[in-house]
Here is the input.
Amino acid sequence: MRISRSALPAIFLTLVFFLGILSGCSGSEKFRKTDIYIESRNGKVHITAEIAGTSAQRSQGLMNRKTLKDGEGMLFLFERDEVLSFWMKNTLIPLSIAYIASDGKILEIHDMTPGNLNPVVSGRSCRYALEVPRGWFSRAGIEIGDKLIIADF
Here is the structure.
C-alpha cells in the first residue's frame, strides 16, 4: 500500500484525534473531593465525596475501583433537572445510589449490584446522584426526605 505525501497531514491529525479519544477513556479522570453533610432525623451526617461534574467524569464514575469506605462516595452533578439513569458496568463495588432534587432533598435510594447492566432509573427529574457503599445510607440513618448540604457550593 502506498500513501501519498499530501495525505500524511490528514492521517496524522486523524491518528492524534483517535489517540485523544482513547486517552480520555483510560479511566484516569481526576476527581476533586468535597465535604457533604446530610441533615437527617438523627442529626448531621458527614461524607467525603468525589465530584463527577463533567461528562467524562460522570461516564467514568466509580468504575474499576476495588474499595470504597463508609463515609466516602461520589456525587454526580448535572446541569439541569432530568430523569437520571445509572448502571454498574465495570463497577466492582456494591453501591447504593440516592437521587437528589435541586434543593438537596433525597427523593429515592436504590441498591445496585456490581456488573449489573440493567439501568436504575429515577422515578422523576433530579439534579444530583450520590453513590456510596451499599447499605451506607441505612447504616448512617439517612432516609428519603433528608437534605444534602454541599460545603463548597
Summary: The radius of gyration is 19 Å. The beta strands are 33-40, 43-52, 72-86, 95-100, 106-112, 120-133, 147-150. The chain has one domain: 29-150.
